[in-house]
Amino acid sequence: MDERAGDIVTSVESTVEAMFREERGRLLASLVRRFGDLDLAEEVASEAIEAALAHWPAEGVPSRPGAWLMTTARRKAVDRLRRDKTYAARLAVMQVEVERAAPAPPADAAGDLPDERLQLFFTCAHPALPAEDRAALTLRCLAGLTTPEVARAFLVPSAAMAKRIVRAKKKIREARIPFRVPGPDELPERLPVVLQVIYSIFTEGYAASSGPDLQRLDLAEEAIRLARILRRLLPAEREVAGLLGLMLSIHARRAARTGPGGELVLLDEQDRGRWDRTMIDEGRGLVPVALTGGPPGPYGVQAAIAALHDEAADLATTDWPQIVALYDVLLALAPSPVVALNRAAAVAMRDGPEAGLALLDELAGEPRLRGYHPYPAARADLLHRLGRRHEAAAAYREALDLAGTEPERAHLRRRLNAVETSGPDGAAGA
């Protein structure tokens, strides 16, 4: 193969990869709706991609690659069903529908996002599935990650993740979980599960639970992409707007959250000139959408908090009274020890470290904060500001033992060293 031919193949492979990642949710959703089998849909979708890699380098990328992939996958599904006698009865019923099906819409049809993809969101995030299975299945089916990529996201072996995904599919099949959008009476109960799955994916991308890197930008960006799809599919749902606004406002700081060597940079030390202002403006624009037209939801309130951080020139000029007030609303809507922890940190900025520490100490017996390193780290910071050096050092050591990523551990080691080399208790450290 000469160099030019090799470049063509490489270009086609890149086009196919980009197209598949973008179109995977649409392709799978349409195939699952038509054939009622998620495993079959995944297999023939992969075969369609292989066919594209075989044909497109010689024949050129078609003008409607998404439609080409859909047609190819449908044909392969019918061929596979013909060979499988257990599907014979079902094939006889669906054959006419497949043959008469209208051509798939062009992949680039403006604003044309099939309802089938929304159905796939709710199938992958069905409450009957264990929480960890929901996120894994969403990443596999809607974000288009491979099983090894999903395994890396959850820091488990590929074989274990493969079993988890198989288990989720089996549960869908055996429990006869319907492939449909919930009715208006069911949506308020079911939508939060979908939003929670997407936000869990984003959270792992924003602050990885372990590993050498602080951020997994690929996961964070996939979560935002999924939220954009959901926003276009459910434009009237204010909490969808809130979730997207929240993630955009946080992700806008990504470039400033780490230093040249990947080290953690806290909010008060970040170069705000590196924040993505276009993303900040988009996130802020979604806050009024999320907070008007009815009672506020948790994601809308969190989006408002994130927007206040983004609007401030520095930590000192941040509107801490408003942030504390919003945390009060959030605690009433979605009480949790993590929300209480974040509120205590905001109170410390508004009223001083002693007030914040008193609130943190009230959370000392909370079992859900055991093993959560931001809690002892927050206590250590406030104790250090109060000059209580020995207590601060002990809290930093506790946080260091719990921290999952190397950048977080390195940051805590630096803080611990600063405390141990500072002045005696009762005097503020350096």
Automatic annotation (TrEMBL):
Keywords from the UniProt entry: Sigma factor, Transcription, Transcription regulation
InterPro entries in alphabetical order: DUF6596, RNA_pol_sigma70_r2, RNA_pol_sigma70_r4_t2, RNA_pol_sigma_r2, RNA_pol_sigma_r3/r4-like, WH-like_DNA-bd_sf
Domain (RNA polymerase sigma-70 region) ranges: 20-85
Pfam family, one: Sigma70_r4_2
Domain DUF6596: 190-287
Ranges for domain RNA polymerase sigma factor 70 region 4 type: 124-172
Family to which this protein belongs: Belongs to the sigma-70 factor family. ECF subfamily.
Alphabetized PANTHER family for the sequence: BLL6612 PROTEIN (PTHR47756:SF2), BLL6612 PROTEIN-RELATED (PTHR47756)
Protein name: RNA polymerase sigma factor
UniProt organism field: Streptosporangium fragile
